[in-house]
Amino acid sequence: MRNHLSAAAAGILLLAGVSAAAAQDVIIQPEQDTVIREYVKKKPMASISLLGVEVNVGTALPETVELYEVPDVQYRYVIVDGRTVLVDPSTRKIVKVYD
Q: What is the Cα–Cα distance from 1 to 87, expressed in whole angstroms?
């Protein structure tokens, strides 16, 4: 019985990990990526610094950070430490970092 519980618990943790990883994998189509890059070049914003915040995919940005719209794209952007960061506005999590 103990082995069955351990196996069930391991299975649940594995599924939860896979679901969390899948939620972070955002695929941006090449056409959409081009639109984003061109728009950001045309509408440059001042870069901000965020002390204590790592600029990585999956990192949530504080509510105090203003996100800027890209027309016809569900994501928003902001420039952090000279890097363009694409953010999901509903979660405020970084989905892509452009160098």
A: 46
Contact 48/78 with Cβ under 8 angstroms? Answer: yes
- The percent helix, strand, coil of the chain (3-state, each to 5) is 35, 20, 40
Query: What is the Cα–Cα distance from 95 to 2, expressed in whole angstroms?
Result: 40
Contacts of residue 43, defined as CB under 8 A and 6 or more positions apart, other chains included, come to 68
- Burial (Cβ within 10 Å: 0-12, 13-18, ≥19) of residue 28: middle
The whole model's pTM is what?
A: 0.73
Looking at every residue in the chain, the average pLDDT score rounds to 82
Are 43 and 69 in contact, with CB atoms under 8 Å apart?
no
